[in-house]
Amino acid sequence: MSLGQNWALWRGLMRWMAIKMTSRRRFLAGLLATGLVPKPTWADAGSPQYLSAGALPDGSYVLCGIGAANDVLFQIPLPARGHAAAAHPTRPEAVAFARRPGTFAIVIDCVTGMEKSNMSAPEGRHFYGHGAFSADGHWLFTTENDFEAGQGRVGVWDVQAGYRRVDEFASGGVGPHEIKRMPGTDTLVIANGGIDTHPDSGRTKLNIATMAPNLTYIQDGQIVDSVALSHDLHKNSIRHIDIADGQVAFGMQWQGDGEQNVLAGLHRQGEAINLLTAPDAQSRQLRGYVGSIAFSRGGKHIAVTSPVGGVTQVYDVASNALSYQIIAPDAGGVAARGTGFIITNGQGQLGQIDQGALHLGAGSSLAWDNHIVPVGV
Amino acid sequence: MKRLLLAFSVTLVATGAPAQSLSDLTSVALDTHVLPGYARLAAQSQVLADVAQDDCDAASPVLTAAYGDAFDAWIGVSHMRFGPSEVDDRAFALAFWPDSRGVTPRSLLGLISDEDPIGLDAAAYADVSIAARGFYALEFLLYDDAVATAGSDSYRCALIQTVTADIAILTQAIDAEWRDSYADLLRHPSDTGIYRSDEEAAQELFKAVSTGLEFLGDTRLGRPLGTFDRPRPTRAEVWRSQRSQRHVTLSLAALRELALVLSADDVQVHTAMENAFDRAQDRIARIDDPAFAGVSDPSGRFVIEVLQQEISAIRTVVRNELGPKLGVVAGFNALDGD
Question: How confident is the model over B263-287, as a mean pLDDT?
């Protein structure tokens, strides 16, 4: 039986599994009570709250676990520049992805700080720097480029088989970037950025004149919904997403000429897109570029970073309007934290945004790279 | 031209001329670089279209010379990807490259084998795929073994006339908009304009230098270099017409011209820019490899790799010295996000 068939089989077995789950859970609980299963958990990794890639002054690259006290709990070398990471829902394991158009991903045991295994993109594919686990943690999904066809793919990797490649399916567009799972479901949401690239030309964008980004929803490998912006926004590359209460927030990067002040929006499956708005004087400060996007806990606010513009903006979800803007030079990563947000920047600082103010920690020689990823979400 | 401009900027520095404002730098850049560059492109493109009307034989030396002159003019402005060149995707239509999937020859062969009437009408030609328009499509029609011999001579002749006429229409539209309105937007920033301060206007020109150098190093040189184990000479830009090295030379000269204007008010940055460009330009002047075929042999490859490093060194000066002077901060994430 091919590995691909295994994955298909898994899809078919899900319903049967659901019936067996209750008894299985009881069985596991029994084992755990006797202390017979020394299965490590995230607590054994020092309970990192976040993961982030970074760059060291000597030109090397690492993936770090960040603790509740903003302390770096572990720092694991990467072979080249990383981008984002995916934290396994239960096992203290993280996958650090190469920045596009990289072909490696490293599975890291966050307890020992050792590389547990590694993944290579199959022939004819490269990664885009993002990935997401299935709800049960059995599968890892990665955004990839089928670069001869110029089409986005989602790679499927069997976690328990040591992160073995088992299948792939269409991402529903070109240049898929961030992928996330709808919490509590196995629906994947993919930001198809729309930009065609080919490794023979590095990061050169090949199709700006005709690019067509979208937001795609996938269940069991099948596209169940896909939304795009109006044609006048077709050069607005949908790149990053966050999800709360079944609602997807997305951040964009303008590839056209001149000013573009619409750079983020909200979407709920089956409904129309709501674009986030701000007064012209503020929105233009994003300089056409949103680097990361995150909901606050509870989902009432959305933060977007713009390292290019040197600002982070917080929007009110109910009104789709700007609440406040913070000057934050070179801030890339953002994630929910406490009642506000944590941000990372290229000066090695972690900052806390609360109530319209930014409290920056001490700088370090480690430049935080692009994204900060919450553990256990 | 390069020598003239050099003399001009050196004089400014040497005589201790009053410090130039950002607005002055932008105006000098417009008057010595941007506007003359687009005027030259429009004029040479018209010559090309006129020549093609008279003589559309791909082997005609008059036609290939006109192609070369107009293409030269395009390379002199190809780093300025903002304003009129981006309206209606004109620059993409003039320059569809790199073409990683071979869409240009496929589109042209489709038109030729169908003898598609759209290929006979310059005004309607704006509706064909951008891959079949502009200078890179024209190179295939003139130099590619398959495309330049496909179908009937009469259709290919008409197609060459159409493509060149389309190039003339596009470049005239760009030139006219620059002269009529866009230059003023940069010269006179306003609270409601595209550029709201002199700094924003100068930063647009800075971005042209920075992205132009990136394209030069990563794409014009990076594509043919490929990897040591797998060099890719036929991925070089315009290798069929043996213009690959020429484009790098011309592009370096154009980028130098603009970078030196933007640094004219600061002796230290100006000198650093000059030195960095000197090294790269001296290097390429000693290379004789028109189509970068040398990427496939170790010694030929080595000199092109060194040239690529010299271009990286220019980028470093641009990022660390010219950028901060113009208010562009070089942050780790800001520079190279994703």
Answer: 97
In angstroms, the Cα distances linking B215 to A44, A80, A329, B79, B266 are 47, 22, 26, 8, 26
The ipTM value here is 0.90
Range B311-330 average pLDDT: 94
**Segment (H or E) for A28:** helix A3-34
Backbone angles phi, psi at A180, to 5 degrees: -140, 155
Rounded CA-CA distance A73/A52 in Å is 11
Contact between chains at A55 and B338 (C-beta distance less than 8 A): no
CA distance A31 to chain B (A): 45
Instruction: Please check the confidence at residue B14 and state whether its pLDDT lies above 80.
Output: no
The answer to whether B215 faces chain A, any CB pair under 8 Å, is: yes
Under 8 Å between Cβ of A158 and A141: no
Q: What is the spatial order of strands in the sheet that A301-306 belongs to?
A: A292-295, A301-306, A311-316, A321-327
**Residues of chain B contacting A130 with CB distance shorter than 8 Å:** none
Kindly list the domain boundaries of chain A, sorted by start residue: 1-36, 44-374
- Burial class of residue B186 in the structure, from the number of CB atoms within 10 Å of its CB (0-12 exposed, 13-18 middle, 19+ buried): buried
**Which CATH number is A44-374 given?**
2.130.10.10
The side-by-side arrangement of strands in the sheet containing A264-268 is: A236-244, A247-254, A264-268, A274-275
Nearest to B333 among A150, A177, A346 (CB): A346
Q: Cα A53 to the chain's mean position, in Å?
A: 12
Test B338 with A370 for CB contact under 8 angstroms: yes
Structure tokens, A24: 């299985």
pLDDT in tens, A95-138: 999 888 899 999 999 888 788 999 999 999 999 999 999 999 99
CATH number of B21-188: 1.20.1420.20
Asked: is B192-328 a CATH 2.60.120 domain? The reply is no
Non-local (6+) Cβ contacts of B284 within 8 A are B245, B248, B249, B252, B307
As a whole number of angstroms, the distance between CA B70 and CA A375 comes to 57
Q: Which two tokens stand for residue A281?
A: 């004087």
What are the sequence ranges of the domains in chain B? 21-188, 192-328
> For residue range A179-196, what is the model confidence (pLDDT) as tens digits?
999 999 999 999 999 999
Q: Break chain A down into helix, strand, coil percent, rounded to 5.
A: 15, 45, 40
| A202, A239, A291 ranked by CB distance to B219: nearest | A202
Measuring CA to CA, which residue among A244, A261, A264 is closest to residue A335? Answer: A244
Q: Which strand ranges, in their side-by-side order, compose the sheet holding A357-360?
A: A331-337, A340-345, A350-354, A357-360
Average pLDDT over residues A246-265: 96
Phi, psi of B166 (to 5 degrees): -65, -40
B219 vs A: CB within 8 A: yes
A102 phi/psi in degrees, rounded to 5: -70, 165
Between A377 and B314, the higher pLDDT residue: B314
